[in-house]
Fold each of these.
Amino acid sequence: MQITYVSETWPETTYEIESDRFGSYTIRADGRVIKRVTAVTEYLDKPKWGSKKLELNAIEDAKAAIARFRSPTG
């Protein structure tokens, strides 16, 4: 899933958030990768084929990470 996000903290910067069904996500600003998080490959109760819930949780985690940035580019 890929979305465009404008933070309340940095309204002048548009972020692109891309997540997958395993909980990994990538945050980009102006075409540059700002942050990339790779999900743990195996943990208790994680479906091996991925899920929509993990994908949506990754988007929320990315939004929370953007809110913690000290500058618009990380």
Note: Residues 2-67 form one domain.
Amino acid sequence: MTLIETIQYAAVAGFVLVGSFFLLVGTIGLIRFPNVYNRLHATSKATTLGAASMFLAGFVYFDGQGVALETLVAIVFLFLTAPTGGHLISRSARKMGVDFTDDVEWPLSGAGIDRGEAEEPDD
């Protein structure tokens, strides 16, 4: 085994370990957090980084040829769709009336979300 192969395998192992860590943290957050907004934050951020690390491990393992190019496309797709999906889920939860925990409230203005409250017309 040459020095280059050793470095390549070490990089693959490092990416897999980092990816596994982030996926584990995202899973624990999904189980432990109290409401949809906290769970969504844990899963969208941590699992995006975890899956991207796994894809990078595949890219390094295949030496940037063949299947490796598909992993780069998957990383780009993941970084474009995961935050968008998380945003849409949180907006849907808000429109369905899911509240934050405890005394936290939505801001009255600037969020761009209709609170469903009828406003009094100015006379």
Note: Residues 36-97 form one domain.
Amino acid sequence: MKNLLFRAYSFRFSLLLAGTLFGCQRQDDVPPPQPLMPRQQLVSVLADLHLLEARVETSRLSPDSARALYLQQQKDIFWRRDINDSLFQRSFRYYASHGKDLDDIYGTVLDTLAARQAKLGAPK
């Protein structure tokens, strides 16, 4: 379990580091790659991926099984949203290279997750 948490934290750290490195090398005239996921779609996918990560972390599976489960469920999320891994990575890298954009996106992701939590916790 500690190994899975370490991997999750190292994944988050590497995303943060990648965003920082891309932000340092940003050129203002770089056109967005085509196709590019719209911000709202990226927010929704990121929220789903973070929920998936939380479910996998609490599943008490071995690290290998947890990783396999995460990757399979990630593919399912991409399939349901009609996107592929390369489109997600390309879009994430583009928004990460524009630091303020990624900050705004993650602010919206946090709001989305809080709204989902409030909806689940609301009395029926």
Note: DSSP finds five helices and no strands in the chain.
Amino acid sequence: MMVPKAYNNAGKETDIEIEHEQFGVEQWTAVVMSELAGEAFAIESRVPGASGIAFDWHQWFEEWLFLLSYTTKCKLSPPTHLKLYASDSFEAIIPWSQLQEAAVLFAETDGSPLTTAGPIRFYVPNGTSKCLNVKNVVRIVISTEEALSDEATFGFKQQWSADELRQKKALGS
């Protein structure tokens, strides 16, 4: 199977930022992530009605952890949550225990790069939200914070311009 390069919705090749709170930040592409994960599969096998080519999140993580420990001799604390950040300001925090069936969509059914949800789309079937899916993922944080919720949380980050903040302050709200 030919593996495509990762592109954002504007057709520009895009990196995905992967951060572990103890290790730091790395830049990956969807293609390199899929190659590290190994076997790709039709996402429909885990998420009925979805289409495209995906890889298993846990398989990627185990391979990444092995690579990291081999190349840096770094021993990391076990993760408790996964934080996903999308290019459209959508954010999700998912307990690690809910990621057993998690899959990362990285290509269309024909093997071409994702055209509307890229560079990657993260699916979490059978979690507290039934099937959480986060499209346009550009940043992934592997968290070791124990204090976070046992349920997935998600939504759009509230953003205001400087002018909007000044108006809110002037109105006393």
Note: Strands lie at 16-20, 24-28, 40-42, 53-56, 81-86, 90-95, 103-107, 120-127, 130-143, 153-156.
